[in-house]
Amino acid sequence: MCGIIGYSGPKNPLPILINGLSRLEYRGYDSSGIAILDGANLIVEKKEGKLQVLKDHLEGKHFNGNIGVGHTRWATHGVPSDLNAHPHTDNKKEFAIIHNGIIENYSELKDELVNKGFNFTSETDTEVVAVELSSKWTGNLLQTVTNVAKNLKGTFALVVTTTKEPNKIVAGRMMSPLVLGVGDEEVFLASDSAAILEHTNKMVFLENGDFVEIIDGTYKIFDINLNEIKREVQDIDWEISEAEKSGYEHFMYKEIIEQPEMIEKTLSGRLVENSIGIPIQLNEVRNFEKIWIVACGTAYHAGLFGKDLFEKVLGVPVSVELASEFRYREPIVGNKDLGIVISQSGETMDTIAATELLKENGAHVLALVNVVGSSLARMSDSVMYLHVGPEIGVASTKAYLGMLVAQLVLAKHWDIENKLNITFEEIKNIPKLVKESLECETEIINIAKGISKKNDIYFIGRGLDYALAAEGALKLKEISYLHAEALAAGELKHGTLALIEEGTPVIVTASQSHLLDKTTSNVQEVKARGAFVIAVGDDNSKKMEKISDQFISLPNAHSLLSTIISIIPLQLIAYHVAKLNGESIDQPRNLAKSVTVE
Ligand code: F6R
What is the pTM of this model? Predict the structure, then answer.
């Protein structure tokens, strides 16, 4: 949420900032802005709307200077507007600041500053920090920023420049992500390493409480009391092409299409017995008495898939929890428990808080994350990376698939009695199965035409198919804005069946052969009320094919793999419905990728 970019070095900052913002736009897209420092001249340009509005506004403009910061906003305090857009400045326009996060005590600070005679032009919490910096100026930017930060409550990644020390940028991090890119006599700052990958793959992931002072393309890191700290410079092996559209119309589409290749990477090196690619070995995992899978949104849906697998293989109870609920409960977690936290970004605030809770109560935490060096990866006891490359589309697709596959690989690795009845060879075949499943696209486009103008769409399934239904409905909702609801098929008759009428689309997946008869009966129930049924299955689900109005046929596979590939048509349905309706697919309204606020 909110994208931050910063530059200090010999080059003209403007194109670097604009490029970086383009790569960060998925984090927030209601307004954007830049500040460039040219000696005592502080240039601030900001505009409400998508980044293109700012780009148009800056067309043909040229600014001197070697220091710049840029921001793309996802509104928390105050509506999207030019005035609320970042960067924010103090009353004398000597400080420019960009911020990701929420300053919880901003209103108290603002009252004090107003009483002292300072003015405010925006409704944001961030402007308060800009004015605080000016009112508490000590003569040194780093010292002033850390002094001000001591009084801030909440979360932040802050980046500050000032005309008073025009060769410096000072940035600090508390809960909101901030990465330093280390180039040749130049330093970059970003909320996400993918934004600066085109310049360098050498990154320093700042920790909570770190402050960095950047002077003329060099940097030093300090704690809030100005003790210098050394942080490791890491090489990130993501390719820049992975963070680009590469000719595709939308990132989401590219990310769906590239899934076979990406899943190959998730699997690579891990599909051998005693694989070193698996962070927790069976003898360790056997000592755990309970497993908590904790995540949000799509990652939570992926966790529902893992529950059945781990329970079967390890014979211990597994509870799948929404991180936003879990963190405010008093769950009975102990030091014999394993927490599996799942996240694409590794920066989701609720998942981080839930991880802290697990750790405080003595659980061992294994993180399944995609973003290398992310907060969750660093705070967990063990990490298994998904390796699906940067995911830019707000609607998660390839990361979800990576989460399913990573959990299957983990379960297989621990399954010495072969309770899952699946071979390594079958698992290795997933990329091929995903590729074949993508061949249903032409059929999906026709289906999408039939449902794109409907108001309500239901997704049903039993067992692992219910987990899929939840994800299929979420995908459709978030990018097409149609009302979609997922139901455990057996629950229909307990209430929701009342909503089924002539022509209501019901999408059903039938990957679980042992539940096929039961699900088929539920399909009969909705058919009897006039539903238009779209079923996803394979040769084993002929019964379903017979009674459905449209049938999407997938390759035959082991039932666990059938579940995994059944998400492909659901992703494509969401994509094509949104496309037909002309929606903003990569940047759906009200949403942003990486939810770093509560
Ligand atoms: C939906 C989606 C979100 C995320 C959720 C958690 O397509 O992407 O529901 O899954 O915000 O994000 P991560 O996985 O980054 O923790």
Answer: 0.86
